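Section handout 9: paired folding examples.
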Amino acid sequence: MTLISFRFITFFLAIALFGQPQLEFLNHNQPVLDAHNCYPYEGRYADRIDRALSLGFPIAIEQDIAWAAGRPVVSHTPKTTGSEPTLREHFFERVRPIVEKALVENDRSKWPLIILHFDFKSVEPKLLRAVWDVLGEYQAWITTAPQTRDPHQLAPLDPKPLLVLTEDADEQEAVFFQNIPAGARLRVFGSAHTAPIQGSREERIHLAATLAPDRLLTERPTNYRRWWNNSWYEVEEGGQNHAGDWTRADAERLRALVDHAHHLGFWIRFYTLDGFDAAENRGWEPGYNFGSHAAVTDRWKAALDAGVDLIATDQYEDLRACMRGK
C-alpha cells in the first residue's frame, strides 16, 4: 500500500468514526441565525415566521411541538386548546414555495437553507410518531442519512433544502432512531446529552459555568446525535439575568465550549440571546434578557467570533444586522 492510499483510507475512517466533516455541512461551518419560538402565542405574534424567512438563508426556525385534537401543533405550552396551528400548515406548507424553488434550482452548495428545530413540549409516543409521519410526507425536502447497525458510525448526510433537528430526550431517540431499521433513512437528528451535574441548585449553577467543557460533554456524536444544545448558564454563571460586563474570560469560556464541541464533531447551539427593555418586548421571556441592546450585541459578536453554529434569539432582525456588520 502506498503512503497516499494509506492516508486516503485513514481520512475516510476518521469520517466514519467521528463525523468531523459534517461540521462543514451546516453553512460551511459558519454561524446561523436561530429564530427562537418562531410561531404565534395564542394568536399573537403570528408574523414571526414571515419575519424570519424574510432575512435570508440559511436560517434556523424553532417550532415548539405539542399534541392537540389528534395532531401535532405548534404551541408554547403542552396545555393546548385545539386552536393552535398545525405543524403541517404553520411550517411545512408555509415554506413550500421556498423549498420547491430550491429543488428546481438544485444548488446543493447552499443546502440546507432552513434548519427546522423541534422543541417538544411533551414526549408522548403518539406525538413523536405523528411528527415522524409528517416528516415522511415531506421527506423529499429533508436532509436524511441511512440508518447504520453501529450507532457510532456516522453515515453521510444527503443534502436537501431542510435539515431537521430535535433535542436530547431518550424518548425521541427511541422513535426517531432506535426503532428505525438499518438501511432506512433518518429524518431528524438529536442533540447530545450534557453530563448531569450533582449538588444543590447553587452548586449546579456554579459548576455549569466553571466545569471544563470535556466534563460537560463527554460523549461523541452518533448517527443520530449530531449537535449540542446549551443554555447561557454554561457561559456566564446564572445566565442572562446575572451577566455583568462581557470580559475576556467570558469570551475564552465561550470559545472553549465551541472548540470542544467542534473537536468532537458536534454542531453547537446557545439559547436565547436577547437584550430589550419593556417597551420593546414582543412576548419574549424575561429569563433570556441581558437587559440592553448593547449587552446582547457584545454576546452576539462573541458568539460569531467563536464560531457558534446556531445562535438563538427572539430579536431576529437585530441579530441579522449584527451578522452583516451593521
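Moving on to protein 2 of 2.
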Amino acid sequence: MRERAELEGSQLSRLKLDLASRGLSPRKRFGQNFLIRPDLAERIVGHSHLDPDDVVVEIGPGAGALTLHLVGRVRRLIAIEKDDGLAAMLREQLAEAPGLAVVNADFLEVDLAALAAEYGVPKLRVVGNIPYSVTTPILERIFEQRAVISTAVLLVQKEYAERLGAPAGSPEYGSLTLFARYHAVLEPLMTVRAAAFWPRPEVDSMLVRFFLREGPPVDVPDEALLFRIIRGSFQMRRKTLLNTLEAALDLPKVTIERLSRQARIDPARRGETLTLEEFARLARAAADRLA
C-alpha cells in the first residue's frame, strides 16, 4: 500500500510539473481526468489484447498515461488529442517513440475509414480514457464507423457501463442499452477507482470492451423505425406499449393493438420489459402497417 501511494505521488508530481512547465492545467471543459497509476495503465493496455501488427487509435491520450504503454506494442499508434497544448507536449516527450503519430484533432471529426486505408488495414483497434461528458457522442461515432473497427476498449463512468450492460426490466435498462447492444457485444473488464485519476472525479470508472458487430443481431427493414419505437418506449417509461407506440408512431390505439398482436407482444406491457428481439418484432410489424 505504501509503495502504491509513493508511486501515485511521484507520478502526480511529475505530471503537475510537466503541465506547469508548459503553462497547462486540466481543462474542465474537455473533461480531463488524467490517469496517475502506471500499474493500472499497464493492466488496461493488457486487457486490450493487441497484436504487434495492429493499427490502434487512442482517443484523448491526454498526458500519455496509456500512450506510454501502447507505443512499441503495435505497428502503428495514432493518438488523437483535441487539446493543442497536450498534443504538443506528447509530440515533444515521445518524439523518439516507434510508430507513434500524434494527431491534434477532435475524434468526433476524424474519418477512421480514411485512417484504415492510409495504413493498409481492414480494421482498426480503438483504446481510450474518454471524457464522461462526450461518451455517448464518441460511442455513436464508433458505431457509425464500425465497418473499419474491430474492437474498442474504453474507460467510461461506472454507472454508464452498468446502463450499457443492463438486463431488461432493470432500472438501468434503457434506449442506450439497446443502442449499444444493436451495434456491439460488450464485455466489462475492470473497475477503476476515482482515486486513480487527477483531478479526482466524483465517480468510479469501468473498463469496457466493445466487439463491433459485422451485422445487426436482429432483422429489421428500417433501422430508424426500430430506434424510433425504442426511444418512444423509454421516453414514457411507466406507460404501456399501447400508449407509447400510439405517440411514437402517431397511430390509433386499435392499430397499435393489431401490430402488437402481429408481433406476438401484449400491448399492456411496458417498453422497459422488452428485449431487443421483441422490439425488432414490433418494428417489423410497424413497417408492414406503415408501408
